[in-house]
Write a structure and sequence with these properties.
- This protein is mainly alpha-helical and about 300 residues long.
- The chain has one domain (about 75-290): Orthogonal Bundle (MetI-like fold).
- The protein has 13 helices and 4 strands.
- The strands form 2 sheets. Strands 1-2 form a two-stranded antiparallel ribbon. The chain has a two-stranded antiparallel sheet with strand order 3-4.
- Strand 1 (about 40) and strand 2 (about 50-55) form a beta hairpin.
- It starts with a helix and ends in a 7-residue tail after the last helix.
């Protein structure tokens, strides 16, 4: 019995070994390297001074050194973080408001039409993200297509100035990540037993109550998965804020890229990346502690 158990354990190890090795090499390895870089001193000409350890990169997130080397509160980076969380949250809500009705409509269609609708939802993935964002620049710029149409209809008297604003970033992020909201919700709704909805109608529920009491609770796993798949990538988005927001609405991804690029402050860039990672992990932990099922519960 013991020999057979050891053999099964060895087989499992051989099966998952390559995957564990790949994850450790290509994910954990770079993370550990970045963690070490975040506690090093910045080099005189950029880069790092290997072996010179300091917590200055983390201190610089909220404070800056005055002329007399005293610490002074600096909320510039905190404002960028707050803006990123606000834009990511607003994008997630907007994707949910658009994605849930879309997924519900898809789930109620015949099977042949469902496949066509899924195909249509995934079409944006076929186009490069840069091309899609440049298309939005043409739409949102002053005297662009939207301004031209509204002006032709005499609804506006001048350019709206939508480009290079948080609104433009939100539109671009919503367009980019909307499929990540639709598909998980559709996967949950597709398995919905419509007899439960019919039973709700038989018991006197109207459409609104059947939706809120039956459909939404049963699709909650897909809603949660969609919100996570939209919110977390939005926090680290770089291309869309760079092209549609410019320098007026910088987000965390642009700030980190700037530290590794033009500023050549690698320790501070690594510290910002780990601050973002810590915030996301704490939020996920709080969610798991809040919504996990009690042992033996329903």
């Amino acid at each position: 019995m013991t020999a057979a158990r050891h053999q099964r354990a060895l087989q499992r190890l051989l099966l998952i070994g390559p995957a564990v090795l790949a994850i450790g090499l290509f994910m954990l390895g770079p993370l550990l390297l970045m963690a070490y870089v975040s506690i090093l001193e910045r080099g005189p000409n950029g880069g790092v001074v290997w072996g010179a350890h300091t917590l200055e990169p983390y201190i610089g997130f909220l404070f800056e050194r005055d002329l007399d080397d005293s610490l002074v509160l600096n909320t510039d980076y905190l404002q960028i973080f707050l803006r990123s969380f606000w834009l990511s949250g607003a994008t997630t809500v907007l994707c949910l408001l658009v994605g849930f009705p879309t997924a519900l409509y898809m789930a109620l269609q015949p099977e042949r039409r469902r496949n066509l609708l899924i195909f249509l939802v995934t079409i944006p993935f076929w186009t490069n993200l840069l091309v899609r964002n440049y298309a939005w620049i043409l739409l949102l710029r002053n005297n662009g297509l939207i301004d031209g149409v509204l002006g032709a209809l005499h609804l506006t008297s001048g350019p709206l100035g939508m480009l290079y604003t948080p609104f433009a970033i939100m539109v671009g992020l919503t367009y980019t990540f909307l499929p990540f909201m639709v598909l998980p919700i559709y996967a949950s709704l597709e398995k919905l037993d419509l007899r439960l909805v019919e039973a709700a109608f038989d018991l006197g529920a109207d459409r609104k109550r059947a939706l809120s009491r039956v459909v939404v609770p049963l699709s909650l796993p897909g809603i949660v998965a969609g919100c996570i798949l939209v919110f977390v990538p939005c926090l680290g988005a770089y291309v869309t804020p760079e092209l549609l927001g410019g320098s007026k609405a910088m987000m965390i991804g642009n700030l980190i890229q700037g530290q590794f690029g033009a500023a050549r402050n690698w320790p501070f860039g690594a510290a910002l990346a780990f601050a973002l990672l810590a915030i996301v992990l704490l939020a996920m932990l709080a969610y798991l502690l809040r919504f996990r099922r009690a042992p033996g519960g329903a």
